[in-house]
Amino acid sequence: MPARASFATLPRCSTILKITLAILVALYVLSHVAATPSQVVMDRKNTKHSKTTFVTHTSTDTLAHEVLSGDGESVFREEGPVQENSSNPWAITYTPYTSAGACKTAQEILADVDEIAAAGFLAIRLYSTDCKVLTTHDLAETLRENEMGLVLGVHVSSGGLETAYEQIDDILAFREPGVIQMVVVGNDAIFNEYCKPEELIGLLKRTKSALSDIGYDGPITTTEPIAILNEHKEQLCPHLDVLASNIQPFFDAGCAAQDAGQIVAQHLQVLGSICGHTREAWNLETGWPSKGSEAHHRAVPGTTEQMAAVRSIWKEAGSRSAFHAFEDEMWKDEGVFGVEQYWGCMNIFSPR
Fold first, then answer.
1. pLDDT surpasses 90 at 254
2. Which positions carry the signal peptide feature in this UniProt record (predicted)?
3. DSSP per residue, 214-252
């Protein structure tokens, strides 16, 4: 359960002023939940090998907003840390591609799974069923032996829902409900205008109905920016078993690396409030780039910064976060700030 709210130090202000500001901001959040988020969008499209298209957005969501000073530096934080009850990180994101963009072999995938298990992760997040990853021989058995599970993605692309239907069929053919921890239908699909809320709801219903036939009764959800989920909560909440968002503190201009965990924990608490505190909140993509062409104000890419940020997130919200990513993904474009290829962080959990 989330800890009680706590407030970060507010320079040059008295205690009374800090409390007053906190109350005013809380009232603003409650009365302005549908405003447009400030976002940095990176197009991750790469059509080689029919790769899934990913879009990263800033975590500076309106609903989980910060009060900013004139230079963009955060001077107020709304919530306190999520209390951890386990030293194990929950999940890490994984794409079954080599640095050149080819599909990995079954042997390479299983070796990666073993490495992830050795680092203590409890789950692997897949964005889609690309490269027929679920057909990897002995995958389910390897997961069971290591007491791990899968967070399976059903990706929705700009091309429509047909590929999503194919991925549902892949999961049905997998027929291993016991190793599936969560199913995520869509990855910022509404935000990217790949589908409308009612279309996503239809896909959620179809997925739930299909997976129930193979005995899966675990959580099925989607992931969207917090403001998008809140904007459409009346439609979406009845169809989401848990609430999920990709919370990337690097895209918060006021976030220094060492503060990344606090930012993630705050956003998780706001996320959990959207459906009236009736659903668990999960962070399905989070981390920090080890390299880039430029800084994003206080958010600076680098190996030292990545180490500080990932350790901070691990401490504050590691049991509810999927760390991004298993390895650098050189098959992607560089993206905004030149960081898109450099999120690999396995060395922090399991030095190679």
1. yes
2. 1-35
3. TT--S-EEEE--HHHHHHTHHHHGGG-SSEEE---GGGS
Give the orientation angle of helix 303-317 with respect to helix 260-272, to 10 degrees: 40
CA separation for the pair 179, 100 (Å, rounded):
30
Per the CB < 8 A criterion, the answer to whether 46 and 333 are in contact is yes
pTM over 0.85: no
Residue 61 tokens read as 């969501």
Domains and CATH numbers, the chain: 15-349 (3.20.20.80)
Query: Residue 270's closest CA among 308, 300, 227?
Result: 227
Amino acid (one-letter) located at 87: S
Q: Select from 319, 253, 258 the least CA-distant residue to 74.
A: 253
Residue 76's φ and ψ, nearest 5 degrees, are -155, 140
Cβ neighbours of residue 281 under 8 Å, at least 6 residues apart? 242, 243, 244, 245, 268, 269, 271, 272, 320
Largest CA distance in the chain: 62
Q: What is the pLDDT of residues 116-152, one digit of tens each?
A: 999 999 999 999 999 999 999 999 999 999 999 999 9
C-alpha closest to that of 186 among 164, 169, 216: 164
Q: How far apart are CA 230 and CA 65, in angstroms?
A: 13
Average pLDDT over residues 275-288: 98
Tokens coding 138: 């002995």
